[in-house]
Amino acid sequence: MSNTLRLYLACIRNTLDAALCLQNFPCQEVERHNKPEVELKTSPELLLNPILICRNEAEKCLIETSINSLRISLKVKQADELENILTKKFLRFLSMRAEAFQVLRRKPVQGYDISFLITNYHCEEMQKHKLIDFIVQFMEDIDKEISELKMSVNTRGRLVATEFLKQFV
Amino acid sequence: MAAIAVHQFAQCITCHAWSPDHAMVAFCPNNNEVHIYKLIQEKWEKLHVLQKHDQIVSGIDWSVRSNRIVTVSHDRNSYVWNQEGSEWVPTLVILRLNRAALCVQWSPKENKFAVGSGAKTVCICYYEQENNWWVSKLIRKRHDSSVTSVAWHPNNVFLATTSTDGKCRVFSTFIKGVDIKEKKEGTSSDTKFGEQILQLDLSFSWAFGVKWSPSGNTLAYVGHNSMIYFVDDVGPSPLAQNVAFRDLPLRDVLFVSEKMVIGVGFDCNPMVFAADETGIWTFIKFLDERKTSSSGPKYGSQFSEAFGKLYGQSKYGVGNDAVESSRTRGGAHVNCINCIVPLREAGSSRITRFTTSGYTWDLGSQEDLLNYL
């Protein structure tokens, strides 16, 4: 794996380690409610500064934290039109099944490809370092998945074209 | 040193409190109940379940002399429980809150208790004999955000609060008819209820876990920016010190003696801070011994050990070769510690044992720390 990817992921891991210090916090605006403050954004004192980690112009990661929740938005590298379409379809497939992932957000944040929302309840049920491992592993696997998909599309296209053009030989 | 006793009561404990004789412990297992367990012949047995709240119980305190439990919850209610026979009977508390209650503490004389809330107010409750309920007086208009923690000064009148607006404030909570005005020279004339004595704006992030030292001379609280603040001579001209550490932020602190403080937080490992003869506070060590950490504040050597681990990573599998897995914390706690409660021997001002959400720790076996006690 390339050196820049290793550094990028290490940086994200360290940031998540510090940002995932979440605690149960009831809503200040509505009584008896408990909402993820990073989505609500009504009390600015409960939000921390968002951090943008860029690997290059095409790949970046936005981490926004608050007192009880954290939102990570990823922009995946898309080199050409085909990868653009594949990424969109693949990530849409995952986002539609967000309940199964628990920490996935159904719609990505504007300007990004996919978003995660981790709340204090997730940290209570699951271990923090395992959550971080999951996110980082996901980022590693996404690139591989897209390349594999692209390769299989190209292979299939070549096979179909060969078969089709055989009739003219 | 490791924890002397480790008890797994529930998957997640929100808060806990010990009975005066240390035989029973009351805690909230992250739901709307309070469980009371008793140590019967080396095993913990569930004795009572207090079910009156609708939402998670965020604070429990057990008074030492009057054997009463006060509980506050996110459902804006609070109850004072008295033990009558073998049952715990709740007494109504008129809190007049319109948001969740976050923390509670009995005053030293146990005639009042303070509740911090998400309504940006602090309620001071006292007992009204005629109606058999607890009434509250509110400190309003001072806090800009939720009050996360409250702590009583030994004189039963001053109250320190921390809030998510990053400030620590000290108020006077003198209530006519409940408190007796001390006729001493030198006492300040700020004996009006709700009078703000002091406001400390030291942290630029949220403040938690405020505590007074046993004599009431020093105040300690933590900020979410991984710093702990010590304020000596609280009064017209306080002396503030801050200690920054490179680990994850703390959530709560405890004064073990006048000169030693234990802090607990997101690092799952209690940290010891002590003041030397000149009054300068420093970080001493972690209480839980781990193989990777070194004893003493030598952060340089810790860093090189971590680097050694990175480069010595063996390649096993295509997926793992470059991404190191997270440091697994080999300590007693697996998740963040959110409160620390002392096991106080009656009459003694030195605390040698304390518990952190389910684990009991003994300081007495630690020789190098005894010098600071």
Automatic annotation (TrEMBL), chain A:
GO terms for molecular function: actin filament binding. Pfam families: ARPC4. It comes from the Eukaryota. One of its GO terms (biological process) is Arp2/3 complex-mediated actin nucleation. Its main location: cytoplasm. Keywords: Actin-binding, Cytoplasm, Cytoskeleton. Gene3D superfamilies: 3.30.1460.20. It is found in: Cytoplasm, Cytoskeleton. PANTHER family: ACTIN-RELATED PROTEIN 2_3 COMPLEX SUBUNIT 4, ARP2/3 COMPLEX 20 KD SUBUNIT. Belongs to the ARPC4 family. This is Actin-related protein 2/3 complex subunit 4.
UniProtKB/TrEMBL annotation, chain B:
It comes from the Eukaryota. It comes from Citrus sinensis. The lineage of its organism: Eukaryota, Viridiplantae, Streptophyta, Embryophyta, Tracheophyta. This is Actin-related protein 2/3 complex subunit 1A.
